[in-house]
């Protein structure tokens, strides 16, 4: 599955928030928190435009394409409960998000790259699919290679965001444990889920 590799600062500015977390993208948004482009005219945002923006936030935040997002949406519809909340919980369970959330990496694209290159194991087995959905009891570790251990030990020592209750991370052992499934309260992306559900139901 492909993912976005263009200017991340422009996406943060266009969508009006910290979607990409690397330093350059953050700085671009903090310095110029208005949409990119010259001679911007203030236009009234249509309902369609608002819904598209909210959907795009999910796509870029989790590194999804439309086809994958719609497959999660179809799956979320068949899970008991609120469809929008179910959708976000499925996105949170992605391995690349879990690697980022646990503290192995600073950003989701960085986590995705490490997974694709085979740097991580789930329950002792190498896994190179960023879209793998973790389950309670899963253990994520680094492959037993000195160069990888050194790389991720340095990344793990960097200042991290506040941890989540459904994940535990042993910095010294470079091991993350999935204690439970995430809940809608664990989703840090501010988004209007009702608008997204209506848009994807079209």
Automatic annotation (TrEMBL):
Start and end residues of each RNA-binding S4 domain: 93-154
One GO BP: ribosomal small subunit biogenesis
Record GO cellular component, one term: small ribosomal subunit
Key word Metal-binding present: no
Key words, A-Z: Ribonucleoprotein, Ribosomal protein, RNA-binding, rRNA-binding
Gene3D superfamilies per the UniProt record, alphabetical: Ribosomal Protein S4 Delta 41, Chain A, domain 1, RNA-binding S4 domain
Superkingdom classification of source: Bacteria
UniProt family annotation: Belongs to the universal ribosomal protein uS4 family.
Name used for this protein in its record: Small ribosomal subunit protein uS4
